[in-house]
Amino acid sequence: MTEAGYCSVDSGDLRLGVWVEGEPGAPVIVFVHGFPDTAALWERVVAELGGRYRVVRYDVRGCGRSGRPRGRDGYRVERLAADLVAVARAVSPGRPVHVVGHDWGSVQAWEAVTDPTNSGVFASFTSVSGPCLDHLGWWVRGALRRPSWGGVRGLATIAVRSAYTWVFRSWAGELVAPFLARRFGVRSGDVRRGLELYRANLPGLVRSARERWASLPVQLVVPGRDPFVTPAHVAGTARWAERLWRRELPGAGHWVPRTHPAALARMVGEFVDHVEGAPASRGLRAAVSSARFGEKVVLVTGGASGIGRACARGFAAAGAEVVVVDVDGAGASAVAAEVGGTAYAVDVADGAAVAALAERVRAEVGVPDVVVANAGIAVSGAFLDTSVADWERVVDVNLWGVVHTLRAFGQQLAERGEGGQLVVTASMAAYTPTRNLPAYATTKAAVLMLAQCLRAELAGRGIGVSAICPGIVHTNITRSARFAGTDPATQERLREITTRRYLRRGFAPERVASAVLDAVERNVAVVPVTGEARLGLLVSRLSPALLRAAARVDLLPKR
């Protein structure tokens, strides 16, 4: 019985096993696997794309159902590239195909798409975890000739991460072949033959590097956790590719087609559509943007005033599209109009409302790349004077509001698979106790701990988490603070006195926003912003007893 979609293509004296699926007449995408895989590597990616494109995958020579070359020269990248050309012409005569390569599949695809004699065969190329050997050779040669700190570090990275190739090129490769076969569910013979890729192509890599120009559109997908092919391996690619889009999957390892098929399929689909004439997606525009946060979506809760408003302005000035969220709908709209963003009126204490907001934002704007959970309120006063209602409200906004926000948007970031950053606005009160802020400090300590727990949980997904801990910053929070145990007149007087104190301190929210942008860019875990916040953090580590003694001082204005 013939397997659906299976056929064969002759390349020279070899016959290649090929699978053709998807929509007839649609753009054709050819997938090329690496070592020690077979065409089965692409099954989940093909399943994502088969409803929109004509998708083709094949077993490279020496693997699966394809023929076995005689001798080591049969595994030269020139021969492998010829196979790709033969498949492309057979499955799509007269129409260029889009190529996606992984690992050695990418290496051989680079050989094919940079050969000027193949002009008109390929429409685009998406490279995943596989450099052009010639580009790599040129980069290493340049780094050796003109040493620099970055070059030396890159060379060291390549040497360490590529050390396994020496094993594969030696007799020891035969010993690890059975293990690799079991690990990846392939035949030991396929693995042993695949070792010839390393033996036939890597010797003389630097000395024999050729000029290889890529005139077609190239999308470079760079996994952030790839232990074998690092950013240093593809550092020289930009020199040789006229039209290059570099996109990252921070939480992905080497085998992206297996671990992140949906994210990779989305990137491939967006790229193919764009090359075929569709407008560039946000991800593609971000890949070529020179702005600091160009084409990123940044959502800020509590964005109508204070630190939130300053963050909205700062991210917008850095090229981001900003989503402003606040319980004050009019205030959010005013800030959104100022920065050219979008506004939503939501009380973050309402979990259902935040969940609905997340779906609206995804549908109307897109999944945010950065989420700043900034909304908060202040309650001051002694513990015995703080009512249950006061506790409930400050916990609902300062803690539950952060939990609702991070749950809703963190889930979206995890599902998208392209990394991102979550930011929570804590406070120096999170680690500096005081008799005057038991409720407020408790919630801020909770969100600081939440941020650090979540940072550990999401690190493997490439999602960073930062906790911002300001000290005394002049914002509107002092004008709306609740002073427990006071009558309305006394509370208003205390608000005015506190506001004047914060104003005299002279630390503007824009300086906090600057720290937020830096923290997102560098993925910093805990960021004390003001001088007193940094001092408090230091003392909390060196002498907690001193902080506990200082906490006894009554800092509230005299009533």
What this model shows, in words?
Strand 14 (420-425), helix 18 (438-458) and strand 15 (463-469) form a beta-alpha-beta unit. The strands form 3 sheets. This protein has an 8-stranded mixed sheet, with helices on both faces. The chain has a 7-stranded parallel sheet with strand order 11-10-9-12-14-15-17, sandwiched between helices. The mean pLDDT is 92. By secondary structure, it is an alpha/beta fold. It has helices at residues 43-49, 77-91, 104-113, 133-145, 149-161, 164-169, 172-184, 188-194, 196-201, 237-240, 256-259, 261-275, 282-288, 306-317, 329-339, 351-364, 388-416, 438-458, 477-480, 488-505, 509-522, 531-542, 544-550; strands at residues 6-11, 14-22, 28-32, 54-58, 97-102, 122-128, 214-223, 241-249, 297-301, 321-326, 342-345, 370-373, 379-380, 420-425, 463-469, 482-483, 526-528. It contains 23 helices and 17 strands. Helix 14 (306-317) packs across helix 21 (509-522). The radius of gyration is 29 Å and the shape is elongated.
